[in-house]
Amino acid sequence: MDSQTKTQMNIYNQLRRIIENHTHMDEQPFMLNESMSLSPREVRTIDFLGQNKNKNVTNVATHFNFTKSAASQLINRLVKRKLVSKKISKHSDKEFHLSLSPEGKKAHQLIQIMTNQRLEMFLEMTERFSAQQIATTSEVLEQIETMVNERLKRFK
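RE: above sequence
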């Protein structure tokens, strides 16, 4: 195996470890307060609803690639926990518009703080790289993302 192939294999293995560690980290509950934690799906759903107005269960299912049934169950859990409000649509008795409750808005603010902290850490870490290194990394990651998306299409 030549030097370039070894380096490519190392990059591949590093990416796998990063993905595995990120997945593990992303599976951890988010402590909203001393008595309530949120699952990663709940966090992402609250964030989605906080950033997008006038959404319904179908929008949630489509955005996260869930079944409508799974999205509905998730939303119902968040409604029960008083984080999301459901209101019947003016256009259809079968459709509900979703919004964050006052408690859901507080949760969304905490999620945004966590997201901003992660972004700040990333920006600090990447400050030491040159513009060319950043551009090359971006190109490589775009290609990897394209490859992953192509592989995902095979499962749909």
